[in-house]
Amino acid sequence: MGGWETNAQKRATKLNNKTNTKQLQKKKNRHIHTYTQTSQTNRKRNAMGCELTKLASSSNGGNSKSNNLPSLDACGPPPVDSRLPLTAKQKYTMVASWKGISRAMETTGITMFIKLFEEHADLLNMFAKFKELKTKEEQATSEELQEHANKVMNTLDEGIRGLDDLDTFFEFIHQVGASHRRIPGFKQEYFWRIEEPFLSAVSTTLGDRYTQNVEGIYKLTIKFIIETLVAGYEASANNNVDNTTSSSTPATKLSDEPNRAS
Question: Biased-composition ranges for Polar residues (predicted)?
Fold first, then answer.
């Protein structure tokens, strides 16, 4: 009797083990099924995100002003025009950083021109409206200089915001460069004199946000803009400047009309 009970107990234990094993297997199957469904759902969401991005891009018609920042989504960075000396990530950083400058355009512009005249006092003679402003204090409080600084910064702003559409960018910046042909005594090397004052003013405005990486991106960007200004200036030598610019609103010049002797 004792032996029979032992065998029965063994059979019951074995049966319980089989039942437990089946239950564990069912749980594993449920986990695998749930994981598979989750993975498939995530893949569908990513695919949908890519398609939505394409649709959004096409609906914007390439208008850079309708977007404050380029999109970096699940599809990865969009391809960059090979004519632009920035990677997709660098362009994104540049446009994002520029938002800080766009909120302080006037002060950044005045700082830039004060630095320009500090390093190149002879350029004051190119500006009829404020060539008599000899001190930093006079320059900082001059309404004429503030107005001109705003115009120049708005020109740079339009150029930087136009990096998503380089055809429009080149057309605009070439026109700005060509407009300087109307200024007697202006030389193309004068364009390069704004490079360091611009970087210095940006550094002052951004403060701690002006990291080494951001500085490198700004250097590439302002160099690209100045090279394009020079190209427009040189190309206009063989063209009638008035015909080049009469079809659109006159571009803002980096310098004012010179003071002409009476």
Answer: 1-10
